[in-house]
From TrEMBL:
Signal peptide: none annotated. It holds the Pfam family MFS_1. It is a multi-pass membrane protein. It is found in: Membrane. It comes from the Bacteria. One of its GO terms (cellular component) is membrane. This is MFS transporter. PANTHER family: EXPORT PROTEIN (PTHR42718:SF42), MAJOR FACILITATOR SUPERFAMILY MULTIDRUG TRANSPORTER MFSC (PTHR42718). GO terms for molecular function: transmembrane transporter activity. Residues 218-238 are annotated as: Disordered. The chain crosses the membrane at residues 30-49, 70-95, 107-125. GO terms for biological process: response to antibiotic. Keywords: Antibiotic resistance, Membrane, Transmembrane, Transmembrane helix.
Length: 238
């Protein structure tokens, strides 16, 4: 039978989580709307877990997460896209809205993020096949973290050269990490559940991307300074 309740509750929980993150940036962590959205997220997640445990053929079999390899792979997938997809959104806002670059120039500037993904993915596959997924996955996570950390040094007047290391590192981290993360998730379950494991891993990546966009793209609240923007409707938190 179709797990309609699980699908609806999962979607609502993710929506409430994204709303809480956006409102925390707009109105503050303790603002009523933020707290209400956070409370709704907690309730919806609890209802989702309950529905999945009771359904005879759940959309997300929670028993899969008893395997540490499967849980770790999906957690890393979520973090990977939280950083990667969130950064794409943030870089686009920053380059266009804050620094006043045009769409074409912004797209060209962001090639530094996408080229490493394309170039390193085949290498990551060969390394995973030869040495196992742990090394490439860990290396990718560290590259992602380093790229995200370097964003703290970027300001409104920073040159493209100051932004370039973050773009390259986040792109490299995503390119190196994707293959071993998927390999680990699929390899942690019986062969007849490989497709399901791949779907869960993909859902974890998309969830991370949605949270990343909500978190990194949240507009600043009135108590936080805005970076001067060339666009009247765009401002980005420092």
């Amino acid at each position: 039978p179709l797990d309609g309740a699980g699908a609806v509750l999962g979607a609502l929980a993710l929506t409430a989580c994204a709303l809480a993150l956006v409102q925390s940036g707009r109105q503050g962590v303790l603002a009523p709307w933020t707290l209400a959205a956070a409370a709704a997220t907690a309730v919806l997640v609890a209802l989702f877990v309950r529905a999945e445990r009771r359904h005879p053929d759940p959309m997300l079999p929670l028993s899969l997460f008893r395997d540490r390899r499967f849980s770790t792979a999906n957690a890393m997938a979520l973090v990977m896209n939280l950083t990667g997809i969130g950064s794409i959104f943030l870089f686009s806002l920053f380059l266009q809205g804050v620094q006043g670059r045009g769409p074409l120039e912004t797209g060209a500037a962001m090639l530094a993020l996408f080229v490493p993904v394309i170039g390193l993915a085949p290498l990551a596959g060969r390394l995973t096949a030869a040495y196992g997924p742990r090394g490439p996955a860990t290396a990718g996570l560290l590259l992602d973290a380093a790229g995200a950390a370097l964003l703290l040094t970027v300001g409104a007047s920073s040159s493209y050269g100051a932004l370039l290391p973050s773009l390259l590192l986040i792109g490299a981290g995503t390119g190196v990490m994707t293959t071993p993360v998927v390999h680990t998730a699929v390899g942690a379950v019986p062969e007849d559940r490989a497709a399901l494991a791949g779907g869960v891993n993909n859902a974890a990546r998309q969830t991370g991307g949605a949270i990343g966009v909500a978190l990194l793209g949240a507009p600043p609240g009135p108590e936080r300074p805005r970076l001067k923007s060339s666009h009247p409707r765009i401002s980005v938190a420092p």
